[in-house]
Design goal:
124 residues; mainly alpha; 2 domains; elongated; disordered N terminus
Length: 124
């Protein structure tokens, strides 16, 4: 990643490559890693397809394991549509809280899902 070096011209600010890659991915979500890398490199920041792959992996991990990650406009539109299908935002929020409560009693969402699947197989 590009690092800030005080006093030297021509050096990128710390985090500039990451910001440039995220901006390129947001504006071109269907682009492949080498295409994103080419866009970032064209803006004057050296970037490889592997840099893009590493960032995507980090973002995916931060979004799924800690509930973090960047909330995009697409995410908000999907939640809006889900809320509409579920009877409103309050009903959707209530359903999510209910599932979280059930999952915490069993040791997590993954364990709840696997247990439900196993119980279904057992009952059939």
């Amino acid at each position: 990643m590009a690092k800030r070096v005080s006093g030297k011209s021509g050096q990128s600010e710390r985090g500039a490559k990451t910001k440039a890659m995220i901006a390129a991915m947001d504006s071109h979500p269907a682009s492949k890693n080498h295409e994103i890398a080419a866009m970032v490199t064209a803006s004057g920041i050296h970037c490889t397809a592997q840099d893009v792959a590493n960032l995507k992996s980090r973002l995916k991990k931060s979004g799924s394991t800690r509930g973090g990650g960047v909330i995009t406009l697409q995410d908000l539109k999907k939640v809006r549509d889900l809320a509409h299908e579920s009877g409103g935002l309050r009903d959707l929020e209530s359903a999510v809280q209910h599932v979280e409560t059930l999952a915490s009693k069993l040791g997590g969402l993954d364990r709840l899902k696997r247990s439900i699947a196993a119980l279904k197989e057992f009952q059939e």
